[in-house]
Amino acid sequence: MLLENIFSIQKLGGCAMYAVMSATGNIGSKLANILLDKGEKVRVIGRSSQRLKPLLDQGAEAAVGDVSDATFLTNTFKGADAVFALIPPNYAADDFRAEYNAVGANIVKAIQDSGVKHVLFLSSVGADLPEKTGVIKGLRDVEQRLNKLEGVNILHLRPTYFMENLLANVGMIKNMGNMGSEIKGDVKFAMIATQDIAPVAADHLVKKDFSGKAIHELLGERDVSMYEVTKIFGEKIGKPDLQYLQFSAEDSKKVMMDSGISADVSDQLLELGQAINDGLIAVKQQRTAENTTSTSIEEFADFFAQVYEIS
User: Fold this and answer.
1) What are the tens digits of pLDDT across the range 134-176?
2) Which structural domains are found in the chain, ordered by start?
3) Which helix (H) or strand (E) holds 147?
4) Whole-angstrom Cα distance, residue 24 to residue 195?
């Protein structure tokens, strides 16, 4: 384990310090960049100093180590005014929920032992439900652990289905000529581009406008169905007749496992898909300006087309 610049960090110039987990990921890296652009002090957490280098070049401080090490996390959180906590999913895990709980327990212990008072946890729509939500169950478990902390202000940021999940269809279109998944084609549900999550997180962290235990859902620009998505993507990539197929559970699991996803995670993703089909995962807050984000599926289609073109 390599620790860099985390034991002797001092606040300078009255700036707040923010610790950002998974700082090399889509959301964490964008959040760190936003905070740095605001002139804030940022401690970026990751497993690779090389991958963190672009953020270090902008003035961030590195904490390089493994989130399975509670002592590492505790030392990293010390002195932070607020923490952005995110558990990167391991789709090869033999027991996805158990892995989430193990990392979640480390995060909770680190919060307790470090004395940090504001934590924003990246969770998911559906984390209010105790069962039948697949991979989201692990996020619910961590939410429950965090809610037991006394004297710590927690905000559970619950975005909906990531538009980036749709990129799995690039290879399918090239190899099979269609889009598809276990989700019904005509079911409308909320989708969000991950680029829209970090600005909301940054705003909450800087303002520290949450107290006690709070929830903020993020619902994307609007609800869409997979049929609509397929039509929009098809037109964008020059395949206006592109079709969407709903796969059986057996076929979906085979596709996922062939791509390197473990049997357990495949089963959890199938359960999540069924929850979407059944309308079980429903937003709990009315759509407002505060929980509606800007990137539309049409705008995301431009990015999808770029990925398709270079794949």
Assistant:
1) 999 999 999 999 999 999 999 999 999 999 999 999 999 999 9
2) 17-160+193-218 (3.40.50.720)
3) helix 136-147
4) 14
